[in-house]
Fold this sequence. Notes:
- The protein is α/β, with parallel strands linked by helices and 554 residues long.
- It has 21 helices and 17 strands.
- The protein has helices at 48-79, 82-95, 98-111, 115-131, 136-157, 186-191, 210-218, 229-232, 254-260, 289-297, 309-315, 321-334, 370-376, 378-389, 407-421, 440-444, 446-452, 460-467, 486-501, 518-524, 537-549; strands spanning 14-16, 18-21, 24-33, 162-163, 177-183, 197-204, 222-224, 238-242, 247-250, 281-286, 303-307, 340-343, 397-401, 431-437, 455-458, 506-508, 529-532.
- The strands form 2 sheets. Strands 1, 2, 3, 4, 5, 6, 7, 8 and 9 form a 9-stranded mixed β-sheet that branches. An 8-stranded parallel β-barrel has the order 10-11-12-13-14-15-16-17, surrounded by 8 helices.
- It is globular.
- It starts with 13 loop residues before the first strand and ends in a 5-residue tail after the last helix.
- Bound molecules: phosphoenolpyruvate and magnesium ion.
- Phosphoenolpyruvate is lined by residues 305, 307, 346, 438, 459-462, 509-510.
- The site of magnesium ion (MG) has 5 residues, from helix 18.
Amino acid sequence: MEISLYPKVSLPNKFMGLAINSGKSFGHVCLYASNHHQAVVPHDLVNDTEVAEEIARLDVALKECSQDLDRIVLEVSEHVGEAEGSIFTAQKHILNDPAIIAAITLGVRTEKKNLEYILDRVFDGYEEKFAKLDNEYFRERSTDIGEMRRRLLDKLYNTRPGFICQGQHDCSRGKDRIIVAEELTAEMMVHMKLESLLGIVTERGGITSHAAIIARSMGIPAVSGVRGVYSQVQCGTRILVDGDAGMVLLNPDAEIVAAAIPKEPQISENICYLETPAGMEVLANASLVEDAHQAAFTHADGIGLFRTEILFMRAQRRLTLEEQSAMYRDVLSIMKHKPVTFRMLDVGGDKELPFLRIEKETNPYLGWRGARFLLGSPDIFETQIRALLRQTNEHIVRILFPMVIDSKQMQELLAFVRAIMATENVRSENVRIGAMFEVPSACLDADAIFKSIDFASIGSNDLIQYIFAVDRNNDLVSQDYNPDHPILWKVLQDLANSAKQHKKPLSICGEMAGRPDAAAKLCDIGITSFSVSPRLVNRVRNEISRYCSRGITI
Ligand code: PEP
Ligand code: MG
């Protein structure tokens, strides 16, 4: 269990939060402050000229904020990715929402109060309305509304958010920085020099917030929901961020840091990449087209898990056949002729796609999700399959089904794909179909499933969740989320044996594949293919090489 890494830490120095992005980092706190503009003072406007002046100020502020956002869109698109850039386009739409502008203008005209006061009240109203919505996704959009309020008030008061430690004695800006902020906002991500950023810790902000998505796509360890941390640290405080356990440690001992973050080669242009030992594979996990560049850069042997639902989440709408087809084509061509496994849309649980209008469920983790959702949504299923099959003229296309529950359901999925193959111009010899093993019932039915598929992948993140009935996102029960549990290892061993018996490739793509020392144990049970976060590819390859050089053949 990850927690045992930190035996000596006394409680006041340890904070728990939500694991937003995996990885561990150690550095110095850099405090980031947003202006809250909490006390916006009202004053009366004495005549129509003053009213007109306030409306004119609103026009100017809106124009300037829009220009700022245009610049940010360009900056982020260039340095992070186009999809991330589009987050700020969406914020610009909020900023220029005619209903909001009309409400502010009307408020100034009828109440004859200053612009700041009316604007603050109108945005507060919208933010509150969104924050109360049932749907998590929309709730998190209230952060965007709050950000637009802050942005406009900053403009009107001529203030700026920023780092408060600049110029102080302990300031470590520019190196080993771990940003600590009250709220994780997309704005914050743009203001910081990304190259020197080692981690992010915030008091608020959820898993699907935009900034969380950016942190993930950049591979920065991040923990949010860490209540009370902001007031406990100062600029320069030494801090360890554990984005796997959702934990933050202040001023940890050197041994704790050394145990948590073993020295590993940094990914750089000059690194000497080892060859993956014969018969083994180290692949990268990816979610966006841009991630494929990172996978190629780390010399991964391919992409073992492309989480296609993130493309939909980013677009905030259904993607058309043509759009999907173009994205899949781009990923395949970036990876040249290395294998790419596209996981079919995996919605449900914590992965909500509000535009699909799935009814609210009492227990979404056991509800309308994964393969079950695909079979029940034939139009979405069909469009995605067609978009993938279109690539078969030039590439081998590997299609992976999430949350498969048994061989009967696998047969239904296969029948659906085959029916579409019969109507498309498909090179069927280039199609490979696989199943994820992440539901216990599928593991118990592995022999029958292996008979009908070409390959499989172990989704250990969910497998652990379902074997032990422990929510993978809930830090209150994290002591039961145990990747070292012998029962889990028995299940993994049985899967590896079954794959071998049926001569079918089996990979592991959950987070545990990238844990330090997991590679050797997984090799021991006969797993030969690992799919991990791109920044872990080289380290895992090193571990496997070391394992193989001990003269052990798998
Ligand atoms: C898993 O469950 O292990 C997995 C890889 O899928 P996800 O984390 O996207 O659910
Ligand atoms: Mg899963």
